[in-house]
């Protein structure tokens, strides 16, 4: 019993020693504090109302003292007298209102001082003067109203200063003159109304300056930031700035980020951004800008991110972004834009994000070039998220410009005078621009059969860059030369080309009295009188393309499918008198099915064609083909896609006509031969090893070469080996009888002591 009790006591003592070894307890640690880390006293969130005290001998070793989250109200002159080696002092989230001027007098080694989130309203001059090694000073979220140069006296080592969320209204002259090594300065969320022109004159090493959420009204003094030659980031958002003057940032050669968001800027002088040659990010969103003139953004040679959203911009010059070669992100959303020039983004080759949402776009002929540009970049797999949603005219409201036909971009209202030649040279379809010139050329040649071949526009990734640009360049339309076979006559397809490249002929229901309409064959303009008759033109039927698609196109099918071609066939009802007097053509739409990004292509044929061969298809791809009508030069705006057919192209055959099965058989035979060779080599080696092992079983003794092959004397029962042969090959197996070597008897028994008994030789061995 006594032994068991003593054993338990030993176990308890050992456990206590182990616990104390892993959890050292400092005898001089203040009450409610944690001193587990060497040279650290952590008293955060312990409900303290005063700075805890420790003996002088233990306080001198403390490097970190954490007192955040307590209820300390005042800091006296004796609170930190014993902490001579303190390097970090955290007093945040207390209720400190006043700090004695000599409170930090003994903290010569202090490098970090955190006074944020207290109730400090003033800092008496000389309070921070002993802190010569201080590098980080936090005074944020207090009630400081005034700063003087004496507040930061002798703080030349400070690198980061936070004074945000205070009540500072003025920055005096040379207020930061002692902070010559300052790199980060936070002054946001104050009440700054005025900044003296030399307030930042000594901050030549400053790289980050935040003046956001203050009450500045203008930026016109060119000397305000003139000495900040190392500045990289300048934040001025959330003020009340209305005017940005010339040369305001001209000395900020290293500035890469400038924020002017959420102000009231309505005027930016032409030279306001001069000197910002290295600026990469400019945010001037949520202001009152009304236009972007040419030349304003030209100094921003390296700009990559430009945010102009949430303004009142109604006009952007066509050359506004012409010099921004490195522009990657551009935001123009939520403005008052109605049109944009087609060449406005021609120079921005690396643009990958463009936001044009939230504008009241007018989709008329002036937007044709922008539509062509969008088509071209989409075909290259770029800017796939760019969409322009039409607001005007009412017929196109809510539709996306990317899916509107050029025939629908009609001149409207007072804008008809601006369309002119630009509208005459627009391509026939939004995604089939490369077909128009081919179709016009093919109309000059007589057709010999039913089939009509057309070269289609292939995917952008299948063409090199040069061919891609040529494929999507706007084609030039040329009328075919007149000859004896074509004098006085034009084909329906050429009529459509002529009609669509001048002005699209609307139906009578779409035109009012006194409006102009175009003849589909002659291109001459007639005029609708009040009586309903049209000069130089017959009264047309009410049938439109939508009705023709629904009631007359039948039996759409696809045959002759190979790895690169497919033939689309269709038929129409025999009675086509409904379209008499109006030009009838067909459009074949086809696209790869099931792809996340739509990229339809179109082929136009005349009204007599019933089959089209699609070429340059991608092997092993699923396609869908739809046939639509073009009646009088007008397409169905909302095609139900009832007349469609799907098909899958085949994989191309191997070179030389060799079938895949033959290649597989040859490969299998080669593998079998290789396996046989490997097996034969392995079997040969195995047999050779066995033969060698058998030979080694009949091992011939070394002394066989000296054997005389004499008959073995049976009387020799034993032998006495002389000293010269003693131990010879003792480890090898005994030789056979036929392999024994006979030596002369006298020599053999010369050195041995033997005894003959009845002719039997008996060797005698000595000890």
What would you note in describing this structure?
The protein is α/β, with parallel strands linked by helices. Among the domains are: 216-359, Leucine-rich repeat, LRR (right-handed beta-alpha superhelix) (Alpha-Beta Horseshoe); 433-480 and 490-653, Sandwich (Immunoglobulin-like); 708-767, no CATH class. Helices cover 16% and strands 17% of the residues. It is built from 10 helices and 37 strands. It has a 14-stranded parallel β-sheet with strand order 1-2-4-6-7-8-10-12-14-16-18-20-22-23, with no helix packed on it. It has a 4-stranded mixed β-sheet with strand order 26-33-30-29.
- The name of the CATH topology of the domain at 433-480 and 490-653 is Immunoglobulin-like
The proportion of residues in beta strands is: 15-25%
In the CATH hierarchy, what is the architecture of the domain at 433-480 and 490-653 at level 2?
Answer: Sandwich
Q: Return the average pLDDT rounded to an integer.
A: 75
The rough form would be described as: flat
In CATH terms, the superfamily of the domain at 433-480 and 490-653 is Immunoglobulins
User: In CATH's first tier, which class of the domain at 433-480 and 490-653 applies?
Assistant: Mainly Beta
